């Protein structure tokens, strides 16, 4: 019996891929490191610091402080792009699906790696759809560790066995399965062999919980 749904944010409710790409590209160009959209795709669901490690690859002679400064610089750029976000960045069918879910006796939460989750939800007018938010600010281990989803389930007062996790990243499906959740894959994550359900559009979630 499903009583709760935990949504990953980026790649599930909207996409800020292009903003992440532009911000990381500018850092990589400054450092003279090759970076393209294919590498950007590998950063989906990955924390900011882990993303930087992937981008630096073998060019990793930076100190911890230098890496923190690079990550901060990327985030400042990323947030200047996020400032442009509008509610229209969320597809109409996504908002309609959330409306329908809210009309049911189901608790909803966000389970995102992003430390900018609350800002993104506010800019896109999505905050009111969720009973709880678990994000990059309340975890010590990022996906594929299940911590972000376990915290989300705890915040809505439900055991993982009664919750669905919707994810677009492979690391997110790993995290959901490791935490004992039912894993629904969308986008890139559909190629994950351990996903319990694979959907093309968020509205298909309604059939799964019916
Ligand atoms: P931030 P999600 C993830 O969000 C993004 O997919 C990933 O590209 C990003 O590096 C990560 O958040 C951290 O974001 O720099 O804003 O803290 O998919 O878990 O909602
Ligand atoms: Mg995601």
What is the topological layout?
Layout: E1 4-7, H1 17-31, H2 37-41, H3 48-56, H4 64-82, H5 92-102, E2 107-111, H6 117-123, E3 132-134, H7 147-155, E4 163-167, H8 170-179, E5 182-186, E6 197-199, H9 205-209
Parallel strand pairs: 1-2, 1-4, 2-3, 4-5, 5-6
Helix pairs in contact: 1-4
The structure holds 1,6-di-O-phosphono-beta-D-glucopyranose and magnesium ion.
Key terms for this structure?
210 residues, alpha/beta, Rossmann fold, DNA polymerase, domain 1, 2 domains, 6-stranded parallel sheet, 6 strands, globular, binds 1,6-di-O-phosphono-beta-D-glucopyranose, binds magnesium ion
Mean pLDDT value = 96
The first-level CATH class name of the largest domain: Alpha Beta
What structural class is derived from the secondary structure elements? Answer: alpha/beta
- What are the low-pLDDT stretches, counting only 5+ consecutive residues below 50? none
End-to-end Cα distance, whole Å, is 10 Å
> What is the CATH T-level topology of the largest domain?
Rossmann fold
H-E order: EHHHHHEHEHEHEEH
The general outline is globular
Q: Can you give the helix content as a percent range? A: 40-55%
| Topology, number of strands | 6
CATH homologous superfamily grouping of the largest domain: HAD superfamily/HAD-like
Largest sheet: 6 strands, parallel
Based on the coordinates given, report the CATH architecture of the largest domain: 3-Layer(aba) Sandwich
What strand order characterises the main sheet? 3-2-1-4-5-6
